[in-house]
Amino acid sequence: MSLNFPRPLDKYPVVRTHKAEVVQAALADIYGRPTLRLAPRATRRLDAAINECRLRDVWLGYCRYGAAVSVEFPTVDYFLHLLPARGSGELGTGKTQISLTAKTGATISPDAGYRANYDASYECYVLKISASALTRKLAALTGASINEPLRMRPEMDVGRPAARALLDYLPLLADTLDAADPPFPDWWVSQTEQFLMAMFLFSNRHNYSHLLERDAAEAAPWQVRRVEEFIEANCHRPITLEEIAQVAGVSAFSLFRSFRKRHGCTPLEFISQARSRRRSAR
Question: Under a CB-based contact definition with an 8 Å cutoff, are residues 47 and 3 in contact?
Answer without folding.
Answer: yes
